[in-house]
Amino acid sequence: MSNVKFLILYIILMVPTYFWRFGLIGSAMDGGDDFENLNNTAMVLLLISYVGMAVVSYFRGKGSGKKYLFAFPVVGGVFDLILVFIPFVPTVMNIITIVMGMSDDKESAGDTSINKTDREEIECPACAEVILKKAKKCKHCGHEVNA
Ligand SMILES: [Zn+2]
Fold first, then answer.
1. pLDDT tens across 44-64, in order?
2. From the CA of 113, how far away is ligand 1's center (Å)?
3. E strands, 14-81, where?
4. Among residues 35, 52, 86, 101, which one has the fewest Cβ atoms lying within 10 Å of its Cβ?
5. How far is the CA of 119 from the centre of ligand 1 (A)?
6. DSSP state of 28
7. CA of 115 to the centre of ligand 1 (A)
8. Residue 123 class from Cβ within 10 Å (0-12 exposed, 13-18 middle, 19+ buried)?
């Protein structure tokens, strides 16, 4: 999963959690009889949203060497379902998930730099064409480079 696809999916799932919460707060303010019903509905919707966010994070984390990434929306979701009126923890968790999910891991960054040193180029001493440093033989003139 690319980081852009991850970001889009995560935001699509995350934004409604704020609406569910505001719906809950609104009905609590009204103190209406339907609060209990709405409360349950919003709880289920919140749960579904967080499960979706955990799944998206899991697949993104799996692809980028961060298998633990799904833990952040899970923690955010648990806090959200317990302390639904205090969106601080889930918001922080969402930010961490997005930031970590967007960046590619250090391992693959390291791999790229290894590949770069692997592709290091020098000039052939005989014909001055650019060849790979680790080449034993020049691809242009066939000159034997220091083996
Ligand atoms: Zn050469």
1. 888 899 999 999 999 988 877
2. 26
3. none
4. 86
5. 17
6. H
7. 23
8. exposed
Centre of ligand 1 from the C-alpha of residue 133, in Å = 12
Q: Mark whether 30 and 58 lie in a shared domain.
A: yes
DSSP 123-147: E-TTT--EEETT-SB-TTT--B---
Question: What range defines the domain where residue 132 resides?
Answer: 113-147
Taking a 5 Å cut-off on Cβ, the residues next to ion ligand 1 are 124, 126-127, 138, 140-141, 143
Per-residue pLDDT reduced to its tens digit, 75-134: 998 888 887 667 788 889 999 999 988 887 555 544 555 556 678 889 999 999 999 988
Same domain, 54 and 87: yes
> Do 137 and 74 fall within a single domain?
no
Residue holding tokens 């799904």? Answer: 70
